[in-house]
Amino acid sequence: MPRSVVLASATVAVVALLGATQPASAASVVLGAGLATVCSKAAIAGRSDPKAIETCTIALETQAMGPRDRAGTFVNRGVLKLRRKSYDDSRADFASALRLKPDLGEAHVNWGASLIAQAKYAEGLSEIDRGMALGVDEPAKAWFNRAIAHEGLDDPTAAYLAYQKAAELAPEWSEPQKQLARFTVSRR
Q1: What is the DSSP letter of 46?
Q2: Which of 104, 118, 116, 106 is nearest to 79 (CA)?
Q3: Which SS3 state, helix, strand or coil, does residue 24 take?
């Protein structure tokens, strides 16, 4: 039975330099049957527990998957690890995903989110931009991450504009609006 991957996103709790802003990172949804699908549902649901990570690991070790689904499962496990603040381990999974699918934008966005979480803002911004250039299913999350990176780089104008873009792309998502409310805009 052929499987396909649809990309989605999940939120990762990380404290940013200026406030409790939470970067968003992209997860891959694996459609079909098996543990890889259970793993993707755990990532989308916002889980980070060891059992969810173990499910992803077992899927990677035992389930026959094509390169895209395998890459998506690495991304999902990486997202779960990212939520647990296991940044090096999460990047190892994103690197594995990129070896299989170098054009997987979500893997780059997640890599960038892990760097931002460690206050490596310029590096994180570069990875996010790379992922956005490749294409992501939920660009609002990538714009949100860009905003956090710009705040960390002490560029409030770029941060504000990126939060605005995130809010424009995902008006139902309240977090960009919350962050925009922190800014005061004045003309000079």
Answers
A1: T
A2: 106
A3: strand
Element at 127 (helix H, strand E) = helix 121-134
Distance, CA of 121 to CA of 155 (rounded, Å): 11
Residue 188 DSSP label: -
**CA gyration radius, the chain:** 16
Residue corresponding to tokens 């424009």: 168
Q: Provide CB contacts within 8 A for 48, sequence distance 6+.
A: 80, 81, 83, 84
Q: How do residues 20-79 score in pLDDT, each as one tens digit? A: 455 666 666 565 568 999 999 999 899 999 999 999 999 999 999 999 999 999 999 999
Pairwise CA distance, residues 33 & 49, whole Å: 21
107 within 8 A of 101, measured Cβ to Cβ: yes
DSSP one-letter code for 172: T
Is 122 in a helix, a strand, or coil? Answer: helix
Question: Cβ(66)–Cβ(5) under 8 Å?
Answer: no
Distance CA 37, CA 91 (A): 21
Length of the chain, in residues: 188
Q: What's the whole-number average pLDDT of the chain?
A: 86
CA distance 122 to 142: 14
Phi, psi of 8 (to 5 degrees): -140, -165
* Cβ(173)–Cβ(141) below 8 Å: no
